[in-house]
Amino acid sequence: xxxxxxxxxxxxxxxxxxxxxxxxxxxxxxxxxxxxxxxxxxxxxxxxxxxxxxxxxxxxxxxxxxxxxxxxxxxxxxxxxxxxxxxxxxxxxxxxxxxxxxxxxxxxxxxxxxxxxxxxxxxxxxxxxxxxxxxxxxxxxxxxxxxxxxxxxxxxxxxxxxxxxxxxxxxxxxxxxxxxxxxxxxxxxxxxxxxxxxxxxxxxxxxxxxxxxxxxxxxxxxxxxxxxxxxxxxxxxxxxxxxxxxxxxxxxxxxxxxxxxxxxxxxxxxxxxxxxxxxxxxxxxxxx
Length: 288
Ligand SMILES: N[C@H](CCC[C@H](N)C(=O)O)C(=O)O
Hints:
Keywords: Amino-acid biosynthesis, Cytoplasm, Isomerase, Lysine biosynthesis. By secondary structure, the chain is α+β, with helices and mostly antiparallel strands.
């Protein structure tokens, strides 16, 4: 079937796949054969749901000397970030489907992550170790990252964690009634975080159950956040609020399971979903 209007809109632009993990949505582009390095303005337009494809992040898969592939994660403002749990699951699933395998390694800013198929549309990722080293973030001054000296309205006693990207987790009550973006915005831009920070509001519902919403850099409320779920479980365990075993983290559209080993290595398992595929307009290639 020839697509209608193909003469008006030539479909020879860069192919993309749109996927999501619990509504955290991504545009995935294969940059292995032909490198793809869009400008910040192009990234913003592609990620804009009203005038582009729509996505919380743009993902570019590249060749890697250290892993099966390299995953580059670009925020909607063009900034490259070191980690994204939901994106890692989606990209891993795509590469496993492509190769007909049940395991794949992905090089990210958090290191080389081992990913495996957990079920037909479910992927486990060994996310690496969570640290609380204030220099890793970086923070503008040395503080107790296990109990941050930061109060923004009802948010206090935050825990700062690094899992390839920076996060702060606050524990709250009645999460569904809160205006998460409004509460988290002043934290995201607090001068303590010169590179901004992803802000998670977590509520413990039981010894192995939490719910979470994350206001992500550069200032978007996402449907779910895989790295945010990992650090929220870690933070809850540090405070003795949940068990040491696997913890389910509910995030609106569903849940991920996070298991943190004795050695601090963090395994995250959760769903992936295919939305659609298509081609970007021709002018989404960088020309200069
Ligand atoms: N949603 C992603 C995290 C993206 C983090 C990014 N917004 C940053 O600036 O670090 C996840 O599933 O882990």
